[in-house]
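Researcher: Final request for today, and then I'll write up notes for the group meeting. The sequence and the SMILES for zinc ion follow.
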Amino acid sequence: MYKLLKVTAIIGLATFFSCQKATTESEATLTQEQTTASADTAQAQRRPAPTFHKIPTDMAKNRVYICDDDVSDTFHQKNDCQLLLQCKASFRNLTLLRAVENYGRYNCETCSKELAFVFIEGNVN
Ligand SMILES: [Zn+2]
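Model: Predicted protein-zinc ion complex:
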């Protein structure tokens, strides 16, 4: 009985230490991520996400491009748009609906001027 207890205690201790190590490591990672996040926030100049949008059903699935960095707040219909080409980060090709709803993007004034209406309240489609 005593031996069994001892074994249990050793296993318990081992588990305790390995758990503690794992926790310490993940906390360290988390702290680093938080630091990075706040640094990004300080640099960001993007506009807040559109408060209103109404995308015609037949356009919602149109593919658009976004620059996946911290400051871009527009989507592009043309993948060779001058503004998109200035993107230093990676591109994303996604549906118009996702660009607006998930990424809070506005229409690019250069290549997607005609899409400004989706952000105008009361637009008819
Ligand atoms: Zn554009």
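Model: The longest strand covers residues 63-67. The first helix runs from residue 2 to 43.
Researcher: Thanks, that's everything.
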